[in-house]
Write a structure and sequence with these properties.
- By secondary structure, the protein is α+β, with helices and mostly antiparallel strands.
- Helix content is 41%, strand content 18%.
- The chain is built from 14 helices and 11 strands.
- The strands form 2 sheets. A 6-stranded mixed beta sheet has the order 1-2-6-3-5-4, with helices on both faces. A 5-stranded mixed beta sheet has the order 7-11-8-10-9.
- Helix 8 crosses helix 14 (404-414), helix 9 (291-299) packs antiparallel against helix 10 and helix 10 (330-346) crosses helix 14 (404-414).
- The termini are far apart.
- 36% of the residues are buried.
Length: 429
């Protein structure tokens, strides 16, 4: 029988999203353990999540450096032994920090999980923060920071954050390379003591999870309380002071291209209009066939790419349009972007275009749950952002049912070109 290479496979609309819920356990010391048993390969992923992050301190880089220093030495292992043993057992370790959380992520082969977990548990519970290692880590981060500081996109984003949140907000503070010199071992130890303790921790486990692996976690991380005895850390809210100025230009004469960012603060994830507003933002500039891409990239040829995003930050979201282009095209890009916003506010989107965007979003959304560890990412997102367990189901339903009238209404309410803060970094226009 010959293969039919002409007739495309049948497609079906996505009407609901079936995501398996995590198993919920509580370890002996009170740490919540969320388990996603997925995949057939003999590998698991462990996420140890601590409440803290950038919003937990006014000291730039303190949360980041504390997290990164965990692997530089512990009570029973030096930094070199940690690296050698994890490599020997085929494990991978990732350390990262977000606005409100700090993550220690271990990927390990099932066969060696008890040994790799012993190393990671020692790092998290008994780090030593050796001073010589801190000097090395500080110097490495300084070098990385200097490289990023030379990129026009980085500069524009920092100025945008400053304009949106204000200089006293951890997001808006314009960090400098000299801020690394203000850090020391005592500050890091103090920050560690105030945030890394069992009452302030939640653990996610995903992959080919066995009862033996769960017992290993109980033994290594959940047998008894560790760290100080205090309730879960809650970051204090910071006041947002958005700039009244709307235009910012940062000159970089040697820039190959200019960076342009346009944005403002808008509604957060818990607002009833949030899910449908995401559809509007994607329609404007969130995928390759969007209004901005078709007009500014394909028809005008001003740039290789332009996008609009909706980034949720605490109780607000940032609506942001970003691109890089030759400095001579920046004024035209700004003008065309505002013209596309005006069109969305005055003319209903066509049914075919709206269906294209909805299908793209639903398909992309479903693809994000395909991998064995993607479910863990999904539920970590729910946990770390304080969302309820039905968030994804509601999101799919809102995307699926959004109408042309909804898009017009939302555009008239939330797409306001007069609110746009414009930041340009590069050569003078």
């Amino acid at each position: 029988m010959e293969l039919d290479r002409v007739t495309p496979p049948k497609t079906h609309p996505i009407t609901e999203l079936k995501i398996p819920y995590p198993e919920e356990h509580i370890l002996k010391n009170g740490i919540p353990l969320r388990i996603m048993k997925t995949g057939t390969e003999e590998v698991v992923r462990l996420d140890i999540i601590v409440n803290g992050g950038r919003l937990a301190t006014r000291q730039p880089f303190l949360a980041l450096l504390t997290n990164r220093m965990l692997r530089e030495g512990s009570q029973h292992y030096t930094s070199s032994i940690i690296a050698e043993k994890l490599d020997y057992y085929g494990a991978s370790l990732e350390l990262s920090v977000s606005l409100k959380k700090e993550f220690v992520t271990l990927y390990s082969i099932n066969k060696y999980f008890s040994r790799t977990l012993a190393i990671v548990a020692d790092m998290v519970k008994y780090p030593t923060f050796p001073e010589q290692e801190l000097k090395t880590v500080l110097e490495m981060n300084k070098q990385q920071f200097r490289v990023l500081e030379n990129k026009v996109d980085t500069v524009s984003q920092k100025v945008m954050n400053l304009a949106l949140f204000g200089a006293k907000h951890p997001i808006g503070y314009y960090s400098k390379v000299d801020d690394f010199d203000k850090l020391n071992v005592n500050l890091i130890k103090e920050y560690y003591r105030d945030h890394y303790y069992s009452n302030n921790t939640i653990i996610f486990l995903s992959g080919n999870v066995t009862q033996e692996i769960i017992q290993n976690i109980e033994n290594q991380l959940g047998d008894e309380p560790w760290g100080i005895d205090r309730p879960k850390f809650e970051a204090k809210p910071f006041r947002i002071l958005t700039s009244k100025e709307k235009l910012f230009f940062i000159e970089k004469p040697d820039a190959i291209q200019n960076s342009l960012k346009m944005g403002y603060l808008t509604i957060g994830r818990n607002h009833p209009d949030y899910a449908k507003l995401r559809v509007l933002v994607v329609l404007l500039g969130g995928y390759f066939g969007s209004r901005l891409m078709k007009n500014i990239r394909e028809r005008k040829g001003y740039t290789y790419g332009i996008d609009s995003t909706l980034m949720s930050i605490t109780k607000k979201s940032v609506f942001l349009i970003s691109t890089e282009a030759d400095n001579q095209y920046i004024p035209a890009i700004i003008k065309e972007t505002k013209r596309q916003i005006d069109r969305l506010c005055t003319v209903k989107v066509g049914p075919a275009e709206l269906n294209m965007v909805k299908n793209y979003m639903l398909g992309d959304f479903c693809r994000s749950f395909e991998g064995p560890f993607s479910l863990s990412d999904a539920w970590i997102y729910i946990e770390t952002n304080g969302l309820d367990m039905n968030f994804y189901q509601r999101l799919v339903e809102e995307i699926r049912t959004v109408s042309r009238d909804d898009i017009l209404r939302l555009a008239q309410i939330y797409l306001c070109k007069e609110n746009l803060i414009e930041v340009v970094t590069g050569e003078k226009m």
